[in-house]
């Protein structure tokens, strides 16, 4: 099996090819959750290395861990493609030229656990294009509200919270995209065993996503055997490769309906220690932290185990100010005296308040009815009580941290670091390829949510990934 990988700068993207948060505190977004999760986990575990967690054994031998899972559906699962088809989303723009579907897929009859999905086919030759599953991170944040309606999906929610506009650089231009709200308790996904909505783990999340796919493919059988990719961002640095591990393990036991070709992960949380050192070094490199503070942190923090009191004091000795850690140069969302939200400055194509608009939209009864949601459901972008456990602008999962993790792989470089170009002959970022096809790439000028900050460049990189080639190394020659 060959492997390729891409990573984004300002946002980091990892891809493996196989053969200033919102001012309104009531809105909990992915950008808030990940930073809180990292900090809380560090405090709770005293910086104990991830490989000491019991759950890590699950991934040490995935063949044994998952061989009991089914490889086909013994009976047709409930639900139909026709029932899930969306006639039209409220407020969508005219002349929508692709099919949309949404609904629930049960992953546990025993506990009444069901995951919600939103699926958009490509407007161009959908039958010949691959299937891509998108997973947002958090942990515990919605792929519907974040990925689909703030980043790479075909629509963006307008400031009125009622209407939608087209995203000209949506990823369904080049693939059929399946957005999954996972695990149960996130977004519209649920469990009738209420305690399950508050505590989840990486192992169950991966298994549920696999069972979801198994059942979903029965509902959409034309995608069985289709080239299949798994993509995501942030904490999906865990979700994506873990789901891939389940699928690869089960191929050995006769699984044939999932033709997994690769994984593509943006700004991934990979290693607690590399991330801890990387985000602090990133702040220093970008002038947010002084030489003296960085020197104090470097002298007292090992980034390798339980840290002493001096390390904590060194880290606490500086303040970043009111900036968005997921893109330190982007505007932030502010609240006016009358309660309305507005952007602190202008950045073309980007609205830092969009998370609030999305929340308003998906809590409208007419929207929930149109997308086949259970009645009287309250939607939020991230599950505020959910706790997941697991063994060039983004400061939370910065490119510096990803570089440390890539270096740990010890792979030989086959194509050295070089710029890549968009069709408009601008530098889209930089890329380097390693033995086995593993690729590390950056997206210039992007933050944590790459498709939000750089939709055009992210689409170029994604398309290159699907084709199994690096983006162009030279600018287009003018005719």
TrEMBL record:
Residues 1-25 form the signal peptide. GO terms for biological process: proteolysis. GO terms for cellular component: vacuole. Residues 53-81 are annotated as: Disordered. Pfam families: Peptidase_S10 (PF00450). Keywords: Disulfide bond, Glycoprotein, Signal, Zymogen. InterPro entries: AB_hydrolase_fold (IPR029058), Peptidase_S10 (IPR001563), Ser_caboxypep_his_AS (IPR033124). One of its GO terms (molecular function) is serine-type carboxypeptidase activity. Belongs to the peptidase S10 family. This is Carboxypeptidase. It comes from Lolium multiflorum (Italian ryegrass).
